[in-house]
Amino acid sequence: MAEAHQAVAFQFTVTPDGIDLRLSHEALKQIYLSGLHSWKKKFIRFKNGVITGVYPASPSSWLIVVVGVMSTMYAKVDPSLGIIAKINRTLDRTGCMSSQMKHVASGIIFGTGLWVALIVTMRYSLKVLLSYHGWMFAEHGKLSRATKVWMCMVKIFSGRKPMLYSFQTSLPRLPVPAVKDTVNRYLESVKPLMKEGDFKRMTALAEDFAVNLGPKLQWYLKLKSWWATNYVSDWWEKYIYLRGRGPLMVNSNYYAMDLLYVLPTHIQAARAGNTIHAILLYRRQVDREEIKPILLLGSTVPLCSAQWERMFNTSRIPGEETDTIQHVRDSKHIVVFHKGRYFKVWLYHDGRLLRPREIEQQMQRILDDPSEPQAGEAKLAALTAGERVPWARCRQAYFGRGKNKQSLDAVEKAAFFVTLDETEQGYKEEDPVTSMDSYAKSLLHGRCFDRWFDKSFTFIIFKNGKMGLNAEHSWADAPIIGHLWEYVMATDSFQLGYLEDGHCKGDTNPNIPYPTRLQWDLPEECQEVIETSLTSANRLADDIDFHSFPFTAFGKALIKKCRTSPDAFVQLALQLAHYKDMGKFCLTYEASMTRLYREGRTETVRSCTAESCDFVLAMEDPTQTVEQRLRLFKIASEKHQHLYRLAMTGSGIDRHLFCLYVVSKYLAVESPFLKEVLSEPWRLSTSQTPQMSVPY
What we know:
- With 696 residues, the protein is of the alpha+beta class.
- The protein folds into four domains: 2-45; 56-161, no CATH class; 179-235 and 555-685, Chloramphenicol acetyltransferase-like domain (Chloramphenicol Acetyltransferase), CATH 3.30.559; 251-542, Choline/Carnitine o-acyltransferase, domain 2 (Chloramphenicol Acetyltransferase, 2-Layer Sandwich), CATH 3.30.559.70.
- It is built from 24 helices and 18 strands.
- The chain has a seven-stranded mixed β-sheet with strand order 3-14-13-12-8-9-15, with helices on both faces. The protein has a three-stranded mixed β-sheet with strand order 17-16-18, covered by helices on one side.
- Strand 6 (314-317) and strand 7 (324-327) form a beta hairpin.
């Protein structure tokens, strides 16, 4: 009952002497602190908006420019070439200012205009400079004099102390490649995969497209690139992610692992306390834009930061034809799942974030709670693991009002979702293969009803203190989650730490209200849909053959000593392994980022090339010498790196072809070439985001 009393600001009873009004000072205090917290966030957003809006200048530079203009005016020098005098004459018509006031106002107006013009000039100059990507194609470790001069210019126009979104308006737009260039690169990529007759037929289709329909579709795409911030990203999110009707689990969502060989505490609630607090510290930095934008080439070239915006307080909402992404600006709670029950946990107390020991206390209260799940509650999250259409219809039919709507709102508007898992997972030295397989599969799909796959991410803490994360893909790509994840692991181990007994540092707080059980009223019809979705999800999970193991023979340091790209080395190794296994080559998908451009996401690198095929065949040919194989390996490695650079700089194949296909659908015209290209299956997908790779 304690939390019920604290949930109201006042209570009253009617007595013979009149109404007895009793104010709850604690509730009023919490209302005041909550309002104060909201106004602080509004002020911080406003301040950051001003700072980002004038970047690469700073608000204080306005004063410097205005003072400089006023100083020259008082020295009887006109820095405006007559503009100040015209402003003065305009103000003179108002007839409400003294001569001195008009003089000062004219100087301030001109100084402000000059300041804005300087900002626009600096921002446009930076955008032009960042449009140059020749540095990517230079030999590794060797920068030309022109590139060094260019780097100095970028640093001059980049300003000082950038915030998370400072560079957004200075980033160039993703260019639209020429149709003929894309078609030629496509034909080059499929030549080693097709028989001679099939390749001739595809060449004829491609050449016809490049001459006839292609230029018409390209015109619309060019128009979109001039109007929209990015000509790919919105369609990619809409049609590749949100329009997908299959399960998110396994097919789309991905996972992140804990450090393999380090376990700072075996206490589940304590590990949750530190790491949830670390996630909230990171969220605060995102809200305040205190995270520095990621810079490449010796902290010179910025990457787009747009994907950070929806990391927290975000959920994917199912629809019958298409899903939507729901993002709220702030959320003061998380939802925790344990043994089939859902708990709402407030993140603030007395106007501040809960401390690690206090979060541990809340998690322990959930772990100790003896209550049983309500009817249908235990497996409710299976709806998010199955097909999207049944979930969308079920949501509309049974979650539109009453306690179901309130509880679902609590889940979907939570900062993120947490699962206190009942199993023990992690790397075991005595059984490395089985333990790793089990750990990875648990993070990928769990029991199909103990992760909320629609949330931006589900944070998972296992019974033995190991942790992991399952992330929904539509709102952002893996490197964004990777940045959060590395921060959490580093903060947990090196900043927060634990007591000798394994608990979080600090003291418990008995005044914090208990977590609140979410209430559900799920009719039998809804429970039947849940069971159907669970059956579908279990079938998908059981169909996954997962094999993961630690490889310690060598790492990227040794590969780099051989003057070879680690990524190219791994991709060529995968091509060789696939050929040994299947006896043929296949279309291979590797993702590269396009965040050198505003709102850029990914592009495909077609890793199976004529050069990689030559290398693989040489490895399988006993008549080839080591020298010949090494020469072919270097050629194939350089080819792969070149393709990766083309993809990063907007000259990839697949996103352009995808957008041309979308335009053709809008125009209701059929393209045999595009239809065949977009239907080709990717037999091998080799994308990954290694940890310990994100710069801070």
